[in-house]
Amino acid sequence: MRFRLTPRETSFYDMFAASADNIVTGSKLLMELLGADSSARAEIAERMRAAEHAGDDATHAIFHQLNSSFITPFDREDIYNLASSLDDIMDFMEEAVDLVVLYQIEELPKGVEQQIEVLSRAAELTAEAMPNLRTMDNLTEYWIEVNRLENQADQIHRKLLAHLFNGKYDAIEVMKLKQVVDVLEEAADAFEHVANTVETIAVKES
């Protein structure tokens, strides 16, 4: 890491860690949704909405700190991109749960559980990685693994689309289910965006 003579605002590290921990909460609610019957899903959606609002608050706090800090731990643009990508993950996860409830989907297609398992693992890795931004240590394996998980998510998504279009579902049901699996795929992409931003920061700081 480069040696610096100027002090840096360090509260960003704690805020990024808190944002990532909140994403773990969201991923657990996604897992909970899988095992819930339709009557319990509305309550899970409410808790997910609360988690998404907490994520928004965390993002706004980072932006406020960014605008009020003269010295930042790394490039302002990278701080903005990292905070925005973390926020995107929560937005996509909350949207997926909301769609399941709004569309009154009785049964999710086989393969969605694999999507959610990938997101859950990516959430754990991201939460473990954020505190390491302080030292930039032990981050290479993180972004390599998240990129591998995103590739896995792509494969699962393609198989799900093939399943949805195999003629077993009516057209309206296909449209509903496709929206859900597409949003979960966007969440996986957002995890990759976070990992890529962390890699960019680490390269600049090396």
Automatic annotation (TrEMBL):
<dbReference type="Pfam" id="PF01865">
    <property type="entry name" value="PhoU_div"/>
</dbReference>
<comment type="similarity">
    <text>Belongs to the UPF0111 family.</text>
</comment>
<dbReference type="InterPro" id="IPR018445">
    <property type="entry name" value="Put_Phosphate_transp_reg"/>
</dbReference>
<dbReference type="InterPro" id="IPR038078">
    <property type="entry name" value="PhoU-like_sf"/>
</dbReference>
<protein>
    <submittedName>
        <fullName>DUF47 family protein</fullName>
    </submittedName>
</protein>
<dbReference type="InterPro" id="IPR052912">
    <property type="entry name" value="UPF0111_domain"/>
</dbReference>
